[in-house]
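Q: What would this chain look like folded?
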Amino acid sequence: MTIDELINKINEAHQLDELSNFVSEELESINILFNGSNYEVLKNSKFKISDIFYDIKSSRLKQSTGELKALLNIFADFFERCRFCAELQAIFYLLDEGPVKNRVKASLLYLRINDVSEYVNNFEEIIEILNCSYEEEDFSAKITLSLANYYYTAQEYLKINFSEILISLKEKLILSKTAIPFFTDELLDHIINDSLTESVISEYIAKADNFDYICDETNSQQNLLIESSEYSERYLSLKQVGFDQIIHLSYDLLPENKYSELGRGTSIIDNEDILLQYVKSYGKMHKCKLVDSFDSIDFNKYKNLNFDIVDWGCGQALASTVLFEYFNNNNIKINVESLLLIEPSEIAIKRGILHLSQFIDIRFVKTIIKDFDSICEEDIYTSPERIKLHLLSNVLDIPTFNLRDFIAKIKKTQKGQNIFVCISPFIDENKSMRLDAFYKNFNDNYETQTLSTRVNRKEDEYWNCSKFETYKSFCDIHSQYGCNKKWTRYEKVFITNLIY
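A: My prediction, written as structure tokens:
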């Protein structure tokens, strides 16, 4: 899809439901257009994109559907990159609360100023807002781009006639480096060396679009040995093994906090400290979400039936580990013929095999060290006679893989009965619509039974939070109404029969 094709399609959608249906069907293509295209190509069409937004705003936004909210988030993301003040001001009040709106709010504090001193005077508020966005956003590269845009905008306006104000802003940034988790060393070097240029900003935009979620396509299906490390020795020597013990062990071996290096949990992990930090930061939340979802499946009716389990984007096999612990705790007896772990990080998948070794015979575990776009159909074929249980925990909201191709691969290779457990954080409408699109594709085309649908946003009724972490508590203030650390979730659990 091109910008001109997008304009034509929007112009052809005269009614709200027509526009909503178009966005729902083409959201993947629209995301690829805005996040996968060369930024310089998009920049040449920035005024056309602005016109599209104003046309929709004036004629079709009196009622806002989930699809249009997703489209608005895409536009807001683009306007922030282009530093379009008027468009950002117009779109701000149309956005739902969340990381995109926070980034827009921060942008307006340096784009819409009355006095040059506000570049410095607004510093604390801008950083506080971006920190809030970082807490909820799943890709820190976007927040880093926001910070780079802030300094670049100030630099270009101040460097000739107001150099002393620019020096003051630079000093504030440098002194605050350790308190800003998305402030990278690379960006610091550009600021110190006065080398933050428009081309460097374009590089940050490319990083924010691509997220470096790429792995070596030469990696293929293989069986890996269990890791040998202090962690493995401690883990294998535990008298009682469970998911909570994995959390405890992560705290013991990594007492310091390396959350700022985690990349919001979406980067490919390449060192052991980040494996430990991931479990510390997200382990309990994963477990609680998964157990809730597993409760919606009547496993007793599958007693002694044969299963293949696929853990997509498995990381350290946390979802699989919670699943087998759940089976043990609830005396569930099913025959697991195979477990397929798919993950681009070799160090993470080795840790996952270690975790599973205390629950199952790992001779039945197969591994695919690839990202989703690199997977071949022959990598993932399963038997149509066996039931497939798919674990998709915190993966469908990631916009760095082609969702249509992913769905097509599943349809071709997973014939027979399939149970899908899909859980993601609720970040914004755009990301949640990827999970919606995944579910809708099966629900609209195959016999499908929905077992559970749950949505918990930050502004929704309290569900759960870090307060009930069994080992440490991260809550600042907690009451009967919840806290500022309460968890979000978007969940679909469903059964579908892929005819063969």
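Confidence is low (pLDDT under 50) at residues 211-222, 469-474.
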